[in-house]
Amino acid sequence: MKVINWKPYNKGKLRGFFDVLTAEGFTLKGFKIMEGINGEFVSRPSQQDKNGEWFDTVYCTKEMSAELLKIVKRLKGLGDPKDNTDINQDINQDLKESSDDDLPF
Which structural domains are found in the chain, ordered by start? Predict the structure, then answer.
Protein backbone atom coordinates (compact mmCIF):
# COMPACT_ATOMS: atom_id res chain seq x y z
CA MET A 1 0.00 0.00 0.00
CA LYS A 2 1.34 3.43 -0.90
CA VAL A 3 0.29 7.02 -0.34
CA ILE A 4 0.04 8.78 -3.70
CA ASN A 5 -0.99 12.21 -4.98
CA TRP A 6 -0.14 14.11 -1.77
CA LYS A 7 -1.41 17.69 -2.08
CA PRO A 8 -0.72 20.06 0.82
CA TYR A 9 -3.65 22.35 1.60
CA ASN A 10 -3.30 24.41 4.76
CA LYS A 11 -6.67 26.05 5.31
CA GLY A 12 -8.61 25.87 8.55
CA LYS A 13 -8.08 22.43 10.06
CA LEU A 14 -7.32 20.77 6.71
CA ARG A 15 -3.63 20.03 6.12
CA GLY A 16 -3.79 18.18 2.81
CA PHE A 17 -5.26 15.49 0.59
CA PHE A 18 -3.92 12.14 -0.57
CA ASP A 19 -4.95 8.90 -2.23
CA VAL A 20 -3.97 5.32 -1.38
CA LEU A 21 -2.82 2.74 -3.92
CA THR A 22 -3.29 -0.85 -2.71
CA ALA A 23 -1.02 -3.78 -3.55
CA GLU A 24 -3.86 -5.17 -5.67
CA GLY A 25 -3.96 -2.01 -7.81
CA PHE A 26 -7.04 -0.30 -6.32
CA THR A 27 -6.84 3.48 -5.83
CA LEU A 28 -8.79 4.85 -2.87
CA LYS A 29 -9.31 8.58 -3.39
CA GLY A 30 -10.18 11.33 -0.97
CA PHE A 31 -8.18 10.81 2.23
CA LYS A 32 -7.38 13.98 4.20
CA ILE A 33 -5.00 14.98 6.95
CA MET A 34 -6.84 17.11 9.51
CA GLU A 35 -5.61 19.03 12.56
CA GLY A 36 -7.53 18.07 15.71
CA ILE A 37 -7.22 18.93 19.39
CA ASN A 38 -4.83 15.96 19.83
CA GLY A 39 -2.77 16.65 16.70
CA GLU A 40 -3.06 15.52 13.11
CA PHE A 41 -5.21 12.57 12.09
CA VAL A 42 -6.32 10.78 8.92
CA SER A 43 -9.85 11.55 7.75
CA ARG A 44 -11.20 8.84 5.45
CA PRO A 45 -13.16 9.52 2.27
CA SER A 46 -16.75 10.48 3.04
CA GLN A 47 -19.99 11.32 1.29
CA GLN A 48 -22.93 13.52 2.20
CA ASP A 49 -26.42 12.01 2.24
CA LYS A 50 -29.65 13.75 1.23
CA ASN A 51 -30.16 14.98 4.83
CA GLY A 52 -26.79 16.73 4.87
CA GLU A 53 -25.08 14.22 7.15
CA TRP A 54 -21.61 12.89 6.32
CA PHE A 55 -20.59 9.23 6.48
CA ASP A 56 -17.33 7.44 5.73
CA THR A 57 -17.16 5.48 2.48
CA VAL A 58 -13.86 3.73 3.32
CA TYR A 59 -13.09 2.07 6.63
CA CYS A 60 -9.77 1.02 8.12
CA THR A 61 -8.34 0.09 11.48
CA LYS A 62 -6.80 2.61 13.87
CA GLU A 63 -3.45 0.97 13.20
CA MET A 64 -3.82 1.49 9.44
CA SER A 65 -4.80 5.14 9.98
CA ALA A 66 -1.72 5.62 12.17
CA GLU A 67 0.48 4.02 9.50
CA LEU A 68 -0.99 6.28 6.80
CA LEU A 69 -0.34 9.32 8.99
CA LYS A 70 3.32 8.23 9.45
CA ILE A 71 3.73 7.86 5.69
CA VAL A 72 2.23 11.29 4.97
CA LYS A 73 4.39 12.93 7.65
CA ARG A 74 7.43 11.34 6.03
CA LEU A 75 6.35 12.72 2.65
CA LYS A 76 5.93 16.16 4.23
CA GLY A 77 9.38 15.89 5.82
CA LEU A 78 7.96 15.88 9.35
CA GLY A 79 8.25 12.21 10.24
CA ASP A 80 11.03 9.94 11.33
CA PRO A 81 13.09 9.01 8.23
CA LYS A 82 13.43 5.50 9.67
CA ASP A 83 9.68 4.93 9.24
CA ASN A 84 8.93 2.70 6.27
CA THR A 85 7.00 4.64 3.63
CA ASP A 86 6.03 1.48 1.76
CA ILE A 87 4.13 -1.23 3.60
CA ASN A 88 3.96 -3.55 0.59
CA GLN A 89 5.98 -6.18 2.47
CA ASP A 90 3.25 -6.69 5.07
CA ILE A 91 0.48 -6.74 2.49
CA ASN A 92 2.35 -9.06 0.15
CA GLN A 93 3.00 -11.45 3.06
CA ASP A 94 -0.73 -11.44 3.88
CA LEU A 95 -1.53 -12.19 0.24
CA LYS A 96 0.92 -15.11 0.20
CA GLU A 97 -0.66 -16.58 3.32
CA SER A 98 -4.20 -16.36 1.92
CA SER A 99 -5.54 -18.51 -0.86
CA ASP A 100 -8.53 -18.62 -3.17
CA ASP A 101 -10.11 -21.04 -0.69
CA ASP A 102 -10.48 -18.07 1.72
CA LEU A 103 -12.79 -16.19 -0.65
CA PRO A 104 -16.49 -16.25 0.29
CA PHE A 105 -17.66 -16.52 -3.33
Answer: 2-90 (3.30.1120.40)
Rounded to two decimals, what is the model's pTM?
0.64
Q: What are phi and psi of 58, to 5 degrees?
A: -135, 135
Residues (pLDDT < 50) of the chain are 79-100, 103, 105
Which of 22, 19, 21, 41 lies closest to 30 in space, CA to CA? Answer: 19
Residue type, 12: G
Backbone angles phi, psi at 21, to 5 degrees: -105, 120
Residue 5 gets the label, from left (phi > 0), alpha (psi -120 to 50) or beta, of left
